[in-house]
Amino acid sequence: MADKKITALTSLGTATAREDLLHVVDDPSGTPINKKVTIAEMVNALAAPVALADTASITATAAVNAGRTNVFPDTSQNTTVTLPTPSAGLTFRFIYGGAAADATDHIIKTAGNTIFFKGALTHLDTDGDTNASVFSDGNSNSVLSLITPQSYVIDLVGASATVYHVSGFISDVAAPTFADA
Questions:
Q1: Closest-CA residue to 105 (of 56, 145, 67)
Q2: Helix (H, G, I), strand (E, B) or coil at 169
Q3: What residues have CB less than 8 Å from 171, skipping those under 6 apart?
């Protein structure tokens, strides 16, 4: 079996288990080394949350932030996360990990109005006035602002090179806003 190509091997299909091994080439652009990883190790590594920094500006990347839960801390200033250009299937999840309502704003934006959000967030009004869906305009809104949030889960899914679908909820006194840059 040592002389078989990987494409000639039998697939495990639905019998795949977390302890099964995968072949990995570590450092393919530098000094390639053959290594192994279990499916469980790979899934856990790729799903580990990303703790965002308490800083005014963050540039999210597909390599570091995509497909993972990005946790906003209780920030000491308004914090803006700039997303990379979307592609079909590129996903980001953002949650608030603070211990109380944040006193500053969390802003998620694209590179400009030609890359925009489509969809809505459910606003759960914490002072009891209203609960409602807040929609982007679906054609140019490239900035999502969460004003002093208490809790949220926001999912972004790339649909094309110009569209991120947005869904989720935010619990807060102030409704989230979508705007043009």
A1: 145
A2: strand
A3: 124, 126, 149, 150, 151, 152
